[in-house]
Amino acid sequence: MKQLILPTIFLFSVLASAQNIVNDTIFLSRKNAETIFLQNNLSLISERLNIDIAQAQIIQAKVWPNPTFSVNEFNLWRNTGSEELPAIWGDYGRYQEFGASLEQLVYTAGKRKKMIAIEKVGAEMAVEYYKNFLRNLKMEFRNNLTAMQYNQAKKIVYLKQLQSVQNLTKSYAIQMELGNISPGDYIRLKASEVEFLNELNTIEIENNALQSEMKKLLHLNPMSYVKISEDDAIPDMDKINNLNIENSIAQIENYRPDVKLAKLNEKYSQNKYAYEKALKTPDITLEASYDRGGNIMQNFFGLGFSIDLPVFDRNQGNIKAAQFSVEQSKLNKEEVLNNAQTEIMEAYNNFKAVQNLYKNIGDDYQTKLDKMLDNYLMSFKNRNISLLVYLDYVEAYLNNKMILLDTQKELNNCLEEFKNASGQELN
Protein backbone atom coordinates (compact mmCIF):
# COMPACT_ATOMS: atom_id res chain seq x y z
CA MET A 1 0.00 0.00 0.00
CA LYS A 2 1.34 3.43 -0.93
CA GLN A 3 1.27 6.30 1.52
CA LEU A 4 -0.58 9.33 0.19
CA ILE A 5 1.17 12.62 1.03
CA LEU A 6 -1.30 15.52 1.05
CA PRO A 7 -0.40 19.22 0.80
CA THR A 8 -1.09 20.51 4.29
CA ILE A 9 -1.38 19.33 7.88
CA PHE A 10 -5.00 20.43 7.84
CA LEU A 11 -5.76 18.32 4.79
CA PHE A 12 -4.05 15.30 6.32
CA SER A 13 -6.12 15.58 9.50
CA VAL A 14 -9.37 15.89 7.54
CA LEU A 15 -8.61 12.88 5.37
CA ALA A 16 -7.31 10.78 8.25
CA SER A 17 -10.47 11.29 10.28
CA ALA A 18 -13.15 11.45 7.60
CA GLN A 19 -11.98 9.25 4.72
CA ASN A 20 -10.27 5.97 4.03
CA ILE A 21 -7.15 5.95 1.90
CA VAL A 22 -6.59 2.66 0.12
CA ASN A 23 -3.99 2.35 -2.63
CA ASP A 24 -4.05 6.10 -3.24
CA THR A 25 -7.86 6.16 -3.49
CA ILE A 26 -9.40 9.04 -1.54
CA PHE A 27 -13.03 8.69 -0.43
CA LEU A 28 -14.69 12.06 0.13
CA SER A 29 -18.12 13.37 0.98
CA ARG A 30 -19.22 16.55 -0.75
CA LYS A 31 -18.77 18.50 2.49
CA ASN A 32 -15.25 17.25 3.16
CA ALA A 33 -14.24 17.77 -0.45
CA GLU A 34 -15.34 21.40 -0.24
CA THR A 35 -13.42 21.89 3.01
CA ILE A 36 -10.23 20.75 1.28
CA PHE A 37 -11.07 22.85 -1.78
CA LEU A 38 -11.39 26.04 0.27
CA GLN A 39 -8.17 25.27 2.12
CA ASN A 40 -5.91 24.21 -0.75
CA ASN A 41 -7.12 25.61 -4.06
CA LEU A 42 -4.20 27.60 -5.46
CA SER A 43 -6.37 29.97 -7.49
CA LEU A 44 -8.27 30.97 -4.34
CA ILE A 45 -5.06 31.45 -2.38
CA SER A 46 -3.65 33.60 -5.18
CA GLU A 47 -6.82 35.68 -5.52
CA ARG A 48 -6.95 36.22 -1.75
CA LEU A 49 -3.55 37.92 -1.93
CA ASN A 50 -5.12 40.71 -3.99
CA ILE A 51 -6.89 41.82 -0.79
CA ASP A 52 -3.51 42.17 0.95
CA ILE A 53 -2.16 44.05 -2.06
CA ALA A 54 -5.09 46.49 -1.91
CA GLN A 55 -4.59 47.01 1.83
CA ALA A 56 -0.93 47.78 1.16
CA GLN A 57 -1.99 50.46 -1.33
CA ILE A 58 -3.93 52.22 1.46
CA ILE A 59 -0.76 52.28 3.55
CA GLN A 60 1.12 53.79 0.62
CA ALA A 61 -1.56 56.44 0.00
CA LYS A 62 -1.25 57.63 3.62
CA VAL A 63 2.50 58.24 3.33
CA TRP A 64 3.76 61.79 2.79
CA PRO A 65 6.25 62.36 -0.05
CA ASN A 66 9.86 62.29 1.06
CA PRO A 67 11.69 65.61 1.56
CA THR A 68 14.50 66.39 -0.87
CA PHE A 69 17.90 67.35 0.50
CA SER A 70 20.56 68.77 -1.82
CA VAL A 71 24.10 70.14 -1.48
CA ASN A 72 25.43 72.47 -4.18
CA GLU A 73 27.90 75.24 -5.03
CA PHE A 74 30.70 73.24 -3.40
CA ASN A 75 34.11 74.40 -4.71
CA LEU A 76 37.02 71.97 -4.72
CA TRP A 77 39.78 74.59 -4.94
CA ARG A 78 40.27 78.35 -4.36
CA ASN A 79 40.88 81.04 -6.99
CA THR A 80 42.67 84.38 -6.84
CA GLY A 81 39.54 86.26 -5.85
CA SER A 82 38.63 84.01 -2.92
CA GLU A 83 37.97 85.65 0.39
CA GLU A 84 39.08 83.99 3.57
CA LEU A 85 36.28 82.53 5.70
CA PRO A 86 36.28 81.13 9.23
CA ALA A 87 37.69 77.58 9.26
CA ILE A 88 35.22 74.71 9.59
CA TRP A 89 37.60 72.21 11.16
CA GLY A 90 41.25 73.00 11.92
CA ASP A 91 42.58 74.91 8.89
CA TYR A 92 40.05 73.31 6.57
CA GLY A 93 37.26 75.40 5.09
CA ARG A 94 38.85 78.84 4.91
CA TYR A 95 38.11 79.06 1.18
CA GLN A 96 35.22 76.51 0.90
CA GLU A 97 31.86 77.74 -0.35
CA PHE A 98 28.77 75.51 -0.43
CA GLY A 99 25.02 75.63 -0.28
CA ALA A 100 22.39 73.21 1.07
CA SER A 101 18.63 73.10 0.73
CA LEU A 102 15.74 71.05 2.06
CA GLU A 103 12.49 70.83 0.09
CA GLN A 104 9.14 69.35 1.05
CA LEU A 105 6.20 68.88 -1.30
CA VAL A 106 2.86 69.74 0.34
CA TYR A 107 -0.35 68.45 -1.24
CA THR A 108 -3.18 70.96 -1.46
CA ALA A 109 -6.98 70.70 -1.86
CA GLY A 110 -7.12 67.49 0.23
CA LYS A 111 -5.42 65.39 -2.48
CA ARG A 112 -3.87 62.98 0.02
CA LYS A 113 -7.18 62.44 1.79
CA LYS A 114 -8.95 61.88 -1.52
CA MET A 115 -6.30 59.38 -2.67
CA ILE A 116 -6.72 57.45 0.59
CA ALA A 117 -10.49 57.36 -0.04
CA ILE A 118 -9.88 55.95 -3.53
CA GLU A 119 -7.59 53.21 -2.22
CA LYS A 120 -10.04 52.29 0.55
CA VAL A 121 -12.75 51.73 -2.04
CA GLY A 122 -10.20 49.74 -4.03
CA ALA A 123 -9.64 47.51 -1.00
CA GLU A 124 -13.40 46.97 -0.64
CA MET A 125 -13.52 46.08 -4.33
CA ALA A 126 -10.71 43.57 -3.88
CA VAL A 127 -12.77 41.82 -1.18
CA GLU A 128 -15.81 41.67 -3.46
CA TYR A 129 -13.67 40.53 -6.41
CA TYR A 130 -12.49 37.65 -4.22
CA LYS A 131 -16.04 36.81 -3.13
CA ASN A 132 -17.23 36.86 -6.73
CA PHE A 133 -14.32 34.69 -7.82
CA LEU A 134 -15.06 32.27 -4.97
CA ARG A 135 -18.76 32.25 -5.84
CA ASN A 136 -18.13 31.24 -9.45
CA LEU A 137 -15.37 28.77 -8.59
CA LYS A 138 -17.60 27.14 -5.99
CA MET A 139 -20.28 26.50 -8.58
CA GLU A 140 -17.69 25.01 -10.95
CA PHE A 141 -16.33 22.82 -8.15
CA ARG A 142 -19.74 21.63 -6.95
CA ASN A 143 -20.88 20.87 -10.49
CA ASN A 144 -17.72 18.80 -10.87
CA LEU A 145 -18.64 16.91 -7.70
CA THR A 146 -22.10 16.26 -9.13
CA ALA A 147 -20.63 15.11 -12.44
CA MET A 148 -18.36 12.65 -10.60
CA GLN A 149 -21.28 11.27 -8.60
CA TYR A 150 -23.30 10.93 -11.80
CA ASN A 151 -20.40 9.22 -13.58
CA GLN A 152 -19.85 6.80 -10.69
CA ALA A 153 -23.55 5.90 -10.48
CA LYS A 154 -23.75 5.43 -14.25
CA LYS A 155 -20.72 3.15 -14.17
CA ILE A 156 -22.29 0.98 -11.45
CA VAL A 157 -25.47 0.56 -13.53
CA TYR A 158 -23.60 -0.50 -16.66
CA LEU A 159 -21.17 -2.76 -14.77
CA LYS A 160 -24.11 -4.61 -13.26
CA GLN A 161 -25.72 -5.12 -16.66
CA LEU A 162 -22.41 -6.11 -18.21
CA GLN A 163 -21.90 -8.78 -15.56
CA SER A 164 -25.40 -10.19 -16.16
CA VAL A 165 -24.97 -10.22 -19.93
CA GLN A 166 -21.49 -11.76 -19.71
CA ASN A 167 -22.84 -14.60 -17.54
CA LEU A 168 -25.64 -15.16 -20.03
CA THR A 169 -23.22 -14.99 -22.97
CA LYS A 170 -21.05 -17.71 -21.45
CA SER A 171 -24.09 -19.93 -20.94
CA TYR A 172 -25.31 -19.25 -24.49
CA ALA A 173 -21.89 -20.09 -25.91
CA ILE A 174 -22.06 -23.53 -24.26
CA GLN A 175 -25.66 -24.07 -25.37
CA MET A 176 -24.82 -23.01 -28.92
CA GLU A 177 -22.01 -25.58 -29.06
CA LEU A 178 -24.50 -28.20 -27.92
CA GLY A 179 -26.94 -27.08 -30.62
CA ASN A 180 -29.64 -26.05 -28.15
CA ILE A 181 -29.83 -22.41 -29.31
CA SER A 182 -29.25 -20.66 -32.61
CA PRO A 183 -26.07 -18.71 -33.36
CA GLY A 184 -28.26 -15.66 -34.01
CA ASP A 185 -29.40 -15.50 -30.38
CA TYR A 186 -25.81 -15.83 -29.20
CA ILE A 187 -24.64 -13.03 -31.54
CA ARG A 188 -27.50 -10.77 -30.37
CA LEU A 189 -26.49 -11.31 -26.74
CA LYS A 190 -22.81 -10.82 -27.55
CA ALA A 191 -23.69 -7.57 -29.35
CA SER A 192 -25.32 -6.28 -26.15
CA GLU A 193 -22.16 -7.16 -24.22
CA VAL A 194 -20.04 -5.20 -26.70
CA GLU A 195 -22.41 -2.21 -26.41
CA PHE A 196 -22.03 -2.22 -22.63
CA LEU A 197 -18.25 -2.48 -22.93
CA ASN A 198 -18.22 0.46 -25.32
CA GLU A 199 -20.42 2.53 -23.00
CA LEU A 200 -18.20 1.72 -20.02
CA ASN A 201 -15.16 2.79 -22.01
CA THR A 202 -16.85 6.15 -22.71
CA ILE A 203 -17.72 6.49 -19.01
CA GLU A 204 -14.10 5.76 -18.06
CA ILE A 205 -12.77 8.43 -20.43
CA GLU A 206 -15.23 10.96 -18.99
CA ASN A 207 -14.13 9.97 -15.50
CA ASN A 208 -10.47 10.56 -16.39
CA ALA A 209 -11.28 14.15 -17.33
CA LEU A 210 -13.31 14.63 -14.14
CA GLN A 211 -10.53 13.13 -12.03
CA SER A 212 -7.99 15.47 -13.57
CA GLU A 213 -10.13 18.54 -12.93
CA MET A 214 -10.94 17.50 -9.36
CA LYS A 215 -7.30 16.88 -8.47
CA LYS A 216 -6.41 20.32 -9.81
CA LEU A 217 -9.17 21.97 -7.82
CA LEU A 218 -8.19 20.14 -4.62
CA HIS A 219 -4.45 20.37 -5.31
CA LEU A 220 -4.00 16.62 -4.85
CA ASN A 221 -1.30 14.21 -5.94
CA PRO A 222 -1.78 13.39 -9.67
CA MET A 223 -1.36 9.69 -8.82
CA SER A 224 -4.34 9.69 -6.44
CA TYR A 225 -7.87 8.59 -7.33
CA VAL A 226 -10.91 10.43 -5.96
CA LYS A 227 -14.27 8.82 -5.16
CA ILE A 228 -17.23 10.92 -4.02
CA SER A 229 -19.76 9.50 -1.58
CA GLU A 230 -23.20 8.79 -3.03
CA ASP A 231 -24.96 9.45 0.29
CA ASP A 232 -25.56 13.13 -0.49
CA ALA A 233 -26.28 12.82 -4.22
CA ILE A 234 -29.75 14.31 -3.67
CA PRO A 235 -29.64 17.94 -2.45
CA ASP A 236 -31.65 19.23 0.50
CA MET A 237 -34.61 20.70 -1.33
CA ASP A 238 -36.27 22.07 1.82
CA LYS A 239 -33.71 24.91 1.87
CA ILE A 240 -35.04 26.36 -1.36
CA ASN A 241 -38.66 25.37 -0.73
CA ASN A 242 -38.72 27.56 2.39
CA LEU A 243 -37.18 30.48 0.53
CA ASN A 244 -39.13 33.66 -0.22
CA ILE A 245 -38.13 34.40 -3.81
CA GLU A 246 -39.52 37.95 -3.70
CA ASN A 247 -37.30 38.81 -0.73
CA SER A 248 -34.31 37.19 -2.40
CA ILE A 249 -34.78 39.38 -5.49
CA ALA A 250 -35.32 42.50 -3.39
CA GLN A 251 -32.23 41.84 -1.26
CA ILE A 252 -29.92 40.71 -4.05
CA GLU A 253 -27.78 43.84 -3.60
CA ASN A 254 -26.82 42.50 -0.16
CA TYR A 255 -25.72 39.09 -1.42
CA ARG A 256 -24.39 39.23 -4.98
CA PRO A 257 -20.69 40.24 -5.02
CA ASP A 258 -20.87 41.44 -8.62
CA VAL A 259 -23.74 43.80 -7.74
CA LYS A 260 -21.74 45.09 -4.78
CA LEU A 261 -18.78 45.53 -7.12
CA ALA A 262 -20.88 47.60 -9.49
CA LYS A 263 -21.95 49.85 -6.61
CA LEU A 264 -18.36 50.15 -5.39
CA ASN A 265 -17.21 50.96 -8.92
CA GLU A 266 -19.64 53.89 -8.95
CA LYS A 267 -18.25 55.05 -5.60
CA TYR A 268 -14.70 54.62 -6.91
CA SER A 269 -15.52 56.74 -9.96
CA GLN A 270 -17.00 59.47 -7.78
CA ASN A 271 -13.89 59.52 -5.59
CA LYS A 272 -11.69 59.60 -8.68
CA TYR A 273 -13.70 62.54 -10.02
CA ALA A 274 -13.20 64.42 -6.73
CA TYR A 275 -9.47 63.66 -6.88
CA GLU A 276 -9.13 64.85 -10.48
CA LYS A 277 -10.89 68.10 -9.57
CA ALA A 278 -8.45 68.57 -6.71
CA LEU A 279 -5.52 68.14 -9.11
CA LYS A 280 -6.37 71.44 -10.81
CA THR A 281 -5.13 73.14 -7.62
CA PRO A 282 -1.31 73.21 -7.77
CA ASP A 283 0.76 71.75 -4.95
CA ILE A 284 3.27 73.82 -2.98
CA THR A 285 6.92 72.99 -2.44
CA LEU A 286 8.39 74.53 0.73
CA GLU A 287 12.12 75.17 0.85
CA ALA A 288 14.69 75.92 3.56
CA SER A 289 18.22 76.77 2.33
CA TYR A 290 21.68 77.57 3.64
CA ASP A 291 24.49 79.28 1.72
CA ARG A 292 28.05 79.64 3.02
CA GLY A 293 30.21 82.33 1.50
CA GLY A 294 28.12 82.90 -1.57
CA ASN A 295 26.26 86.04 -0.63
CA ILE A 296 26.70 89.32 1.22
CA MET A 297 26.37 87.17 4.34
CA GLN A 298 28.98 84.56 5.13
CA ASN A 299 26.26 82.25 6.51
CA PHE A 300 22.91 82.76 4.84
CA PHE A 301 19.72 81.01 5.98
CA GLY A 302 16.63 81.47 3.83
CA LEU A 303 13.07 80.22 3.34
CA GLY A 304 11.08 79.95 0.13
CA PHE A 305 8.39 78.12 -1.77
CA SER A 306 7.49 77.18 -5.34
CA ILE A 307 4.15 76.57 -6.98
CA ASP A 308 3.01 75.73 -10.51
CA LEU A 309 0.95 78.44 -12.17
CA PRO A 310 -2.22 76.84 -13.61
CA VAL A 311 -2.16 78.90 -16.79
CA PHE A 312 -2.41 76.18 -19.44
CA ASP A 313 -3.00 72.85 -17.68
CA ARG A 314 -5.88 72.86 -15.22
CA ASN A 315 -6.49 69.11 -15.64
CA GLN A 316 -9.58 69.86 -17.73
CA GLY A 317 -9.44 66.65 -19.81
CA ASN A 318 -8.99 64.26 -16.88
CA ILE A 319 -11.80 65.96 -14.95
CA LYS A 320 -14.15 65.57 -17.91
CA ALA A 321 -13.15 61.93 -18.40
CA ALA A 322 -13.72 61.20 -14.69
CA GLN A 323 -17.14 62.84 -14.92
CA PHE A 324 -18.10 60.58 -17.84
CA SER A 325 -16.78 57.61 -15.89
CA VAL A 326 -19.20 58.40 -13.05
CA GLU A 327 -22.15 58.40 -15.48
CA GLN A 328 -20.88 55.18 -17.06
CA SER A 329 -20.57 53.42 -13.69
CA LYS A 330 -24.16 54.39 -12.80
CA LEU A 331 -25.47 52.82 -16.00
CA ASN A 332 -23.35 49.73 -15.44
CA LYS A 333 -24.68 49.36 -11.89
CA GLU A 334 -28.27 49.45 -13.12
CA GLU A 335 -27.51 46.89 -15.82
CA VAL A 336 -25.74 44.49 -13.43
CA LEU A 337 -28.59 44.77 -10.91
CA ASN A 338 -31.25 44.14 -13.55
CA ASN A 339 -29.35 41.15 -14.95
CA ALA A 340 -28.88 39.69 -11.47
CA GLN A 341 -32.60 39.95 -10.67
CA THR A 342 -33.47 38.28 -13.98
CA GLU A 343 -30.92 35.50 -13.43
CA ILE A 344 -32.20 34.63 -9.96
CA MET A 345 -35.77 34.32 -11.24
CA GLU A 346 -34.69 32.11 -14.13
CA ALA A 347 -32.59 29.90 -11.85
CA TYR A 348 -35.46 29.56 -9.38
CA ASN A 349 -37.93 28.55 -12.11
CA ASN A 350 -35.45 26.03 -13.56
CA PHE A 351 -34.96 24.41 -10.16
CA LYS A 352 -38.70 24.20 -9.56
CA ALA A 353 -39.21 22.55 -12.98
CA VAL A 354 -36.62 19.85 -12.28
CA GLN A 355 -37.91 19.42 -8.73
CA ASN A 356 -41.43 18.78 -10.03
CA LEU A 357 -40.07 16.19 -12.47
CA TYR A 358 -38.24 14.42 -9.65
CA LYS A 359 -41.36 14.42 -7.45
CA ASN A 360 -43.51 13.03 -10.28
CA ILE A 361 -41.05 10.18 -10.80
CA GLY A 362 -41.37 9.23 -7.14
CA ASP A 363 -38.86 8.17 -4.53
CA ASP A 364 -39.65 4.44 -4.80
CA TYR A 365 -39.61 4.24 -8.59
CA GLN A 366 -35.93 3.32 -8.73
CA THR A 367 -36.43 0.42 -6.30
CA LYS A 368 -39.36 -0.86 -8.33
CA LEU A 369 -37.34 -0.56 -11.51
CA ASP A 370 -34.45 -2.61 -10.10
CA LYS A 371 -36.82 -5.26 -8.76
CA MET A 372 -38.59 -5.52 -12.09
CA LEU A 373 -35.28 -6.03 -13.89
CA ASP A 374 -34.42 -8.89 -11.54
CA ASN A 375 -37.81 -10.44 -12.29
CA TYR A 376 -37.27 -10.16 -16.05
CA LEU A 377 -33.83 -11.73 -15.72
CA MET A 378 -35.24 -14.61 -13.73
CA SER A 379 -38.08 -15.09 -16.24
CA PHE A 380 -35.58 -15.14 -19.08
CA LYS A 381 -33.38 -17.70 -17.33
CA ASN A 382 -36.49 -19.86 -16.78
CA ARG A 383 -37.33 -19.37 -20.49
CA ASN A 384 -40.66 -17.74 -19.69
CA ILE A 385 -39.80 -14.80 -21.96
CA SER A 386 -37.72 -14.56 -25.12
CA LEU A 387 -34.30 -13.00 -25.51
CA LEU A 388 -35.73 -10.06 -27.46
CA VAL A 389 -38.31 -9.31 -24.74
CA TYR A 390 -35.58 -9.41 -22.10
CA LEU A 391 -33.22 -7.18 -24.06
CA ASP A 392 -36.02 -4.72 -24.81
CA TYR A 393 -36.69 -4.41 -21.09
CA VAL A 394 -32.98 -4.00 -20.35
CA GLU A 395 -32.90 -1.12 -22.86
CA ALA A 396 -36.01 0.45 -21.29
CA TYR A 397 -34.49 -0.07 -17.84
CA LEU A 398 -31.27 1.69 -18.82
CA ASN A 399 -33.16 4.58 -20.40
CA ASN A 400 -35.20 5.09 -17.25
CA LYS A 401 -32.11 4.73 -15.04
CA MET A 402 -30.39 7.45 -17.03
CA ILE A 403 -33.46 9.68 -16.70
CA LEU A 404 -33.33 9.22 -12.91
CA LEU A 405 -29.61 9.94 -12.75
CA ASP A 406 -29.95 12.91 -15.12
CA THR A 407 -32.74 14.31 -12.93
CA GLN A 408 -30.62 13.97 -9.80
CA LYS A 409 -27.72 15.64 -11.60
CA GLU A 410 -29.95 18.50 -12.79
CA LEU A 411 -31.34 18.96 -9.28
CA ASN A 412 -27.83 19.59 -7.97
CA ASN A 413 -26.80 21.75 -10.90
CA CYS A 414 -29.96 23.87 -10.81
CA LEU A 415 -29.63 24.33 -7.06
CA GLU A 416 -26.03 25.52 -7.53
CA GLU A 417 -27.15 27.86 -10.30
CA PHE A 418 -29.73 29.33 -7.95
CA LYS A 419 -27.14 29.74 -5.18
CA ASN A 420 -24.85 31.41 -7.67
CA ALA A 421 -27.58 33.69 -8.99
CA SER A 422 -28.85 34.67 -5.54
CA GLY A 423 -25.42 34.87 -3.88
CA GLN A 424 -26.81 32.87 -0.95
CA GLU A 425 -25.53 29.57 0.42
CA LEU A 426 -28.96 28.64 1.88
CA ASN A 427 -27.32 27.06 4.94
Automatic annotation (TrEMBL):
The keyword Iron-sulfur belongs to this UniProt entry's keyword annotation: no
Coiled coil: 330-357
Top-level division of the source organism's lineage: Bacteria
Signal peptide limits: 1-18
UniProt-listed SUPFAM superfamilies: Outer membrane efflux proteins (OEP)
Keyword set, alphabetical order: Coiled coil, Signal
Pfam families for the chain: OEP (PF02321)
Gene3D superfamilies: Outer membrane efflux proteins (OEP)
Entry's family note: Belongs to the outer membrane factor (OMF) (TC 1.B.17) family.
Protein known as: TolC family protein
UniProt organism field: Flavobacterium plantiphilum
